[in-house]
Amino acid sequence: MAGPVVAPPSTELPQWEVPEGWKPKAATTMRLASFMVGADGDLSVVALGPGAGGTLANVNRWRGQLGLAAVSDAELASTTSSLALAGGQSATLVDLTGAGQFAGRKMLAAIIARPDRTWFYKLTGDAALVGAEKDHFVKFIKSVKY
Hints:
Blueprint lengths: L1 E5 L9 E4 L2 E4 L7 E5 L3 E8 L5 H12 L14 E5 L5 E8 L7 E9 L4 E9 H6 L1 H10 L3
Antiparallel strand pairs: 1-2, 3-4, 4-5, 5-9, 6-7, 7-8, 8-9
């Protein structure tokens, strides 16, 4: 069950519904918001300029962080899916499971391209924990209001 709507500390930032059990952490220079999810899950919210490197470059950077080989533009669909959001918007969802020394780690990410910024929501941690939080992550992303 979702908790109350919680807004980041600026009216320029989106509002969202934080899933029960997600604990807010202090924002940083890069992170506009952060949450502790379970024992070791870390959710970050980052907004960059409109282009922000593009989906392929970001997905390949994240794949590298989990010991996975880069994919081509044609292979990108094997790692991503689209999530319909309110107001006709959509998010690109990324679901990665680590390999090699990163086996046992998992990342869920959502990329939302807006006219003024590209928003990145990324949950990383133990594969079992992050996998169990996938429905909460998707519900969180669907709750974001700009």
